[in-house]
Amino acid sequence: MKRTLFALLALIGSASAFAVVLDDFNAGTYYQDSNATSYNTENVAAGLMRYGNHVFFSNPDSRYLTTEIAGGQLYVEAETGVNAVFTFGHLGGLLNGAPASGSGALSTLDAASFPTAMNWTATPVVEAVFSASDQSTATVQFWAYEKSGSSIGNLFNSSVLSIPQGGGTVSFDFSTTGLNLANVGAWGMNLGLPTGNDLAIDQVNAVPEPATLIALGAGLAAFARRRKAN
Length: 230
Description:
Blueprint: H1 2-17, E1 20-23, E2 30-34, E3 38-45, E4 48-58, E5 65-70, E6 73-78, E7 83-92, E8 101-103, E9 125-133, E10 139-148, E11 151-157, E12 161-162, E13 168-173, E14 184-193, E15 198-207, H2 210-229
Antiparallel strand pairs: 1-15, 2-5, 3-4, 3-8, 4-7, 5-6, 6-15, 7-14, 9-13, 9-15, 10-11, 10-12, 10-14
């Protein structure tokens, strides 16, 4: 019985090992507070940075959008009257001498320090785990760039997906796009905040396709039946 249990636990462990944590918001910090379109960055590893961009579509009362990493979560807080998008991503470093933050679009990426490509072949589904969402109007759109030499190449987006009010997991399968899953250079998400939305995100993962997990579950069940028969 113990041997059966240990074998099952080993298989379950191999399943969980398939998941890749893209960001659990435990390392480093990030803070941005603005009432106009602007970007901010934070270096999290050699040649890699977190990037956040506040883009305002409507803000008649000059209210603020605040985005912050604290206590293992990414918080997004848009005040009443704000209609904005928060773009969050992991990208390469900035050009030498470029400011870490500023108005408008992100400064040019530093090709020389662009990170090594990620391989999502076994984990093509990107999921964001939302622990809070105060309204039903918030949305998320995932995106990924291919790596092209020492720079970024083609961009692929998900559709715009609704975030459940109260929170929940939202995911998108990049194997349904033309993205070269073995050559992912950067990833991120656009969070739509049309009605002054507040969000909290626990982590972002790359996980296997559901069919892979179903097949693994069937294998576990068959394994258990064989052990019981013996």
